[in-house]
């Protein structure tokens, strides 16, 4: 079987992202996406490929142990497959069609942190939830604000999301009421997976941070805005967020994304020394959100104010230990343009306006049955490196 | 060897808490505290005791798999040991001295949630950080406010805590500065360990909650007040907390604490139906904080406004899945009395006053070398069930 990779595939030989799949209810195996196929890495290691990787490493049902082998090992896997495809090696014994398998969460997530690193999103939400005149909090331009999310409710693309219930109190109500959320929203985010442990008490600098970033996924941070608004003072979002967080199944490596680095926004006021960095650290990733097939947003990861290296340095500056498999969300990614907003909250100005779908229906927030699909890709000089999608339907 | 349990021991035969220990750097084993001894459960199972428990269950280095067997199994272990001690059975082949072993984290914590359920603490902090006239937020009496903490920095009693650095900005400063925290504090808390998984999307009611609460520990939620104050708006505490959270090594079972149940405060306004509960659900646990040997606080878990059953019901009302081993902190436990405050922040009115130690020295916040010890026990009609202590020194 000659391996043909469609020219518009997210999974070109420049990409080769890692994931976890199974055939139906079978055992979970590690795979590498190649075009419309999966290279079955677990099978290859079992057959004697990559003598420096033990069979146990690829038989745990998650990427954590493999990632823990280090970037030299995972980088060598990508190079070997790249060469094999380029040289026309017959890989048919190790290839499956992506359409034939079931994808799983790629990693066992220890801790999940969600940042808040898009200036436009922070301003838009600040205007709606707090003071329109002082939308950004005084700390926002000095540090990448973040909070801890819940790892137990992280789900893989394709998993349905049950509309959560909770306490709701609008300004008109005298007391809170209990019921299903009336303001269910998505949040367009990316996430990165930690690839190396730091010791407790040992900060990681911005220049070391790349060693700790294994790769990226797309992330939908589902949010119940009415539950969130009532509960979040003074300790932050809790039940308004922790009912579900969806991620895409393929982890695109940090290295595969380097060709798409671009300069980020100028950070003014000047950041403290531990947040200074060198080089272009933003990444030009085209992002798109569809609701029931209608594109409602086109944003880009390059808009982020704070980059991933700064997020790692900030997260560890107090000695906090990061562990392999931890997930770091970017925060909602909004651009300046009206068509580049990362949540319905922003698009509808908190439910005051409608978003029109192609079937003529309107949305303030998500309705039961709605399916949200976030997709993303980089493209430059004919080279495409993409993420596939993260998909979820409200039930 | 006849087993003599000192009358004032926290670990009476009414208690029999579960923990994880090792002999030096040896393998981690599961033990039950009995007076000054440990009953080596792993050894007992390996020797054929408890035929309904597999050896693998007690050889994983944490309690999670054993807890997962259910309360009937873990309750039967306690009953069996209780009978053996009462009957004078020779247990010497299975007993070690606690002073001879090293204790470890009892569970592998998936997610760590910290509540904020003491009315006095919430009021005291609200006065200092926000508006003295409206110290309690409007939501506080309607729901048990909580946020997600970090599980990777949970450490067992005895582990030293490195003073964290971070961004600090007092009101007088024009811009933030970077440096070691000048306001390092403890927080007197308890925590409970989840003993049963709920399915994603399936809330747990207050009446079912006891099945999900395996047992309790003491918890010190170390806090860097200056870092916290600058970073925490709008998404809650992050680096001001996630550098370290200490817990005591012995998990006292929910069942061992039932004789000490007492009525909690009357909840007014009336809570929503999903937070209603029956019976006395607060627990009379005497709590004490020592700094370098000086007792600086005597508080009690019975002061809590929200009980654990309500916390479980609230946490899952949106369908959030809890997993065996998850840790739920109570929030700082303060009483009305000036001598019953659970943090230096409250005792010193935010650093405006001093706390006097027995050696004549004074503290606004913790200094390097200071050792904080939290201890706790229940006592009623001559029966004592205690927690031991959670200890940590600042380095």
Comma- or semicolon-separated keywords:
homodimer, 395 residues, alpha+beta, SH3 type barrels, Fumarylacetoacetate hydrolase, domain 2, 8-stranded mixed sheet, 5-stranded antiparallel sheet, 25 strands, 15% helix, 27% strand, globular
Describe this structure in words.
The first copy, chain A, has 2 domains: 18-104, SH3 type barrels; 112-393, Fumarylacetoacetase-like, C-terminal domain (Fumarylacetoacetate hydrolase, domain 2), CATH 3.90.850. Helices cover 15% and strands 27% of the residues of chain A. Chain A has helices at residues 41-46, 64-67, 71-86, 119-129, 225-231, 254-257, 308-316, 344-347; strands at residues 18-22, 29-34, 37-40, 95-97, 102-104, 112-115, 146-148, 154-156, 165-168, 177-180, 184-185, 188-194, 213-220, 223-224, 245-247, 252-253, 261-262, 282-283, 286-291, 294-300, 327-329, 355-356, 362-363, 371-380, 383-393. In chain A, the strands form 7 sheets. In chain A, strands 6, 7, 8, 12, 13, 15, 16 and 21 form an 8-stranded mixed sheet that branches. In chain A, strands 4-3-2-1-5 form a 5-stranded antiparallel sheet. In chain A, a hairpin with a 6-residue loop joins strand 1 (18-22) and strand 2 (29-34). Chain A is globular, with a radius of gyration of 21 Å. The two termini of chain A are 41 Å apart. The mean pLDDT of chain A is 97. At the A-B interface, strand 7, strand 9 and helix 5 of A face strand 7, strand 9 and helix 6 of B.
């Amino acid at each position: 079987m000659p391996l043909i990779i469609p020219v518009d595939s997210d999974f070109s030989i420049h990409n080769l992202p890692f994931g976890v799949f199974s055939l139906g209810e079978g055992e979970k195996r590690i795979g590498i996406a190649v075009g419309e196929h999966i290279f079955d890495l677990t099978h290859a290691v079992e057959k004697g490929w990559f003598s420096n990787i033990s069979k146990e490493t690829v038989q745990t049902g998650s990427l954590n142990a493999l990632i823990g082998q280090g970037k030299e090992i995972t980088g060598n896997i990508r190079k070997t497959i790249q060469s094999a495809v380029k040289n026309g090696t017959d890989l048919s014994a190790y290839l499956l069609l992506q359409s034939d398998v079931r994808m799983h969460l790629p990693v066992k997530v220890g801790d999940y942190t969600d940042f808040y690193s898009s200036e436009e999103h922070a301003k838009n939400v600040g205007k709606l939830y707090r003071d329109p005149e002082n939308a950004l909090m005084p700390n926002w331009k000095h540090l990448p604000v973040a909070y801890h999310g819940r790892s137990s409710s992280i789900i893989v693309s394709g998993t349905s999301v049950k509309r959560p219930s909770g306490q709701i109190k609008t300004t008109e109500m005298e007391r809170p009421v209990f019921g299903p959320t009336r303001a269910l929203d998505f949040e367009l985010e990316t996430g990165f997976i930690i690839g190396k442990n730091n010791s407790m008490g040992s900060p990681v600098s911005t220049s070391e941070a790349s060693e700790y970033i294994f790769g990226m996924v797309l992330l939908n941070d589902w949010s119940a805005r009415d539950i969130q608004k009532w509960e979040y003072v003074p300790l932050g979002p809790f039940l308004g967020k922790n009912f579900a967080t969806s991620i895409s199944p393929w982890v695109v490596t940090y290295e595969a994304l380097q060709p798409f680095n671009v300069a980020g926004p100028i950070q003014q006021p000047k950041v403290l020394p531990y947040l200074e960095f060198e080089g272009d650290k933003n990444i030009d990733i085209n992002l798109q959100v569809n609701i029931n097939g209608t594109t409602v947003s086109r944003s880009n990861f390059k808009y982020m104010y704070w980059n991933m290296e700064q997020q790692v340095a900030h997260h560890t500056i107090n000695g906090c230990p990061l562990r392999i498999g931890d997930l770091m969300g970017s925060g909602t990614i909004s651009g300046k343009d009206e068509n580049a907003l990362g949540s319905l909250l922003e698009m509808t100005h908190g439910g005051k306006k409608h978003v029109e779908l192609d079937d003529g229906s309107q949305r303030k927030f998500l309705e039961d049955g709605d399916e949200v699909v976030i997709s993303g890709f980089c493209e430059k000089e004919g080279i495409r490196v993409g993420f596939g999608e993260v998909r979820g339907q409200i039930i």
